[in-house]
Amino acid sequence: MSHFRRAFAASTVALAVATLLPATATAQRNDSYTWKLGLQAGSMAIQTRTQDNSILPSAGAHILVMGKRGGLMVGVDEGFGTDERSNLIVFNDVRRYQAVLMAFPIAAPLEPYFGVGGGIMQVVGPRVDPAVTDPFQRDALLSAATDASAYAFATAMAGVQGRWNRLTAFAQAQIGTAPGDDKLLRGAHYSLHGGIRIGLGAAKEGVREGGY
Q: What is the sign of the dihedral through the CA atoms of 124, 45, 53 and 186?
């Protein structure tokens, strides 16, 4: 949790600084008040009750609604595993739904950004180990696994992006808080993604999209 607290604190400070920047710091942005569709791919690191630091390839999509100096990102990522194990439960994929409040403190060809938010992390399709043959035990284990398959998390993000008219290329790292002791997953989860965002148009009536 100490790593997450430091990351969360740093991102919170960055968001606060971004809101206090003078108007001239963001006066040249040409993507304020727009919608963007993002596509990303990379890796996600998870832990289970019986596995440490399993690195899964992952991909996802999101919508970013830009304001003047920041935005709100809502998206989903999926980590693609193979026979991941948590005690007597086996699964392949994990899915992350999240909403992140973003800050873009400077407008430049290559610019950093930060975010804080939260979401739901979910084990997809848990199943009982075939070694368990008793049908009553299997039913009990599957019921418990279903209850333990998802949890809410808080998250902190940091990234860098380059913008060219409607197209934005980015790379970002993220950390999410650990679940309780009764879940299939354990420990903080991490992700590293790269991708693109495509401008879809104005998000505020009457706003002209400079450079679009």
A: negative
